[in-house]
Amino acid sequence: MSVGPVVLLAFTDRGQCLAETLADALHGQAARCGRPLSLSQWTAEHFSRAGALVYVGAVGIAVRAIAPYVKSKVSDPAVVVVDESGRWAIPLLSGHLGGANDLARRIAGICGAAAVITTATDIRGAFAVDEWAKRQNCVVLQPHKIKEVSAAVLAGRTVGVNSDFPVSGKPPRCVRVADDQTCDLRLSIRRQDRDVLQLVPRIGVLGIGCRKGITPEALETALAQMLARAGICEQAIVAAASIDLKKEESGLLRFCASHGWPLRTYSAKELAAVQGRFSTSAFVQQVTGVDNVCERSAVLESGGTLYSKKNAGNGVTMALALQPYAPDWRWQDE
To answer: First-to-last CA distance in the chain?
Structure first.
């Protein structure tokens, strides 16, 4: 599932005018082919970094441009083609997980185009599990199983969904609430034993305390131990937090960067003010000015609740807190 900006490429002057209009509305960036980058250069530069690519021109040109880079519905960006007259908006790639279908609808609303949606679940108005995953801010752990769930829905069969979080609203047609032993799909941050499609909410904040000069390798070991002990999927983690004494800690910064997690640090005073029941350490209090770093920083950054308490060893402490999360049954704009 790709995140990032919307970038648009036009092939003609007329198309450039439309691309700039769309870029303004979508908070994106518009470019003209050949000024300065060629079609292949522009596509190569943006395919792995942008959230969505919009080609204003012919479908065939866009297809040939993206062909060398297409890998997986999990990682590919949304790709949409709009003709230069703004009559048709056609999602080519990552219609659900990447959001191309939604983007095509947005473009249609901006310029008066018709969104040409071809995915079977959309055509029939049926529950689309991959679109639901994106809307509910989830990572799909077994993307190859999406087709199994979608095939069942399209065949009129009922699929069972089990969630660790209350899901508001009324379940869609062909969906039933099930237990974890009979479900076809699970919404959970916990590791599972059954081979069913799992959606992992991206809501975890990793709180970290560590000794000076800690290595990324030591932090990796501590992370693996904490995840194993708590039975948590690493894909749930979206950010890390610590005390401001560690904001320049090289090993910690490299560890977070390798996972793509932003690191937010707080003062001892800010951490001490966090409400809740936390593990305490006189030694940590003496060194840092607050009785606990990992649990307090995780809770403060998440704005939610502590999920996994302090796991300590080899100069590292880690804890996990969860951001507030309230999934619902919507998978499309209403």
So the answer is: 22
Q: Are 115 and 92 in contact (CB under 8 A)?
A: no
Residue with tokens 């998440």: 302
Cβ neighbours of residue 227 closer than 8 Å, sequence gap 6 or more:
233, 234
DSSP lists the bridge partners of residue 206 as 240, 320
- Residue 1 — pLDDT band, cuts 50, 70, 90? very low
The 10s digit of each residue's pLDDT in 201-260 is: 999 999 999 999 999 999 999 999 999 999 999 999 999 999 999 999 999 999 999 999
Q: Rounded distance, CA 118 to CA 115, Å?
A: 10
Q: What is the CA radius of gyration of the chain?
A: 23
CB neighbour burial string for 147-181, b if at least 16 within 10 angstroms, e if fewer: ebbbebbbeeeebbbbbeeebeeeebebbeebebe
What is the spatial distance between Cα 112 and Cα 114, in angstroms, rounded to a whole number? 7
Contact 229, 311 (CB under 8 A): yes
User: Looking at the whole model, is its pTM more than 0.85?
Assistant: no
DSSP for 63-99 reads HHHHGGG---TTTPPEEEEE-TTS-EEEEEE-SSSS-
For 246, which DSSP code?
G
**Residue type at 319?**
A
CB atoms within 10 A of CB 202: 17
* Cis amide leading into 201 (omega within 30): no
- CA 224 vs. chain centroid, Å, equals 21
Dist. CA 75–CA 1, nearest whole Å: 5
CA distance 275 to 306: 11
Could you tell me the domains of the chain? Answer: 6-118 (3.40.50.11220), 126-201 (3.40.1390.40), 204-322 (3.30.420.180)
Work out whether strand 138-140 and strand 159-163 pair parallel, antiparallel, or are unpaired.
unpaired
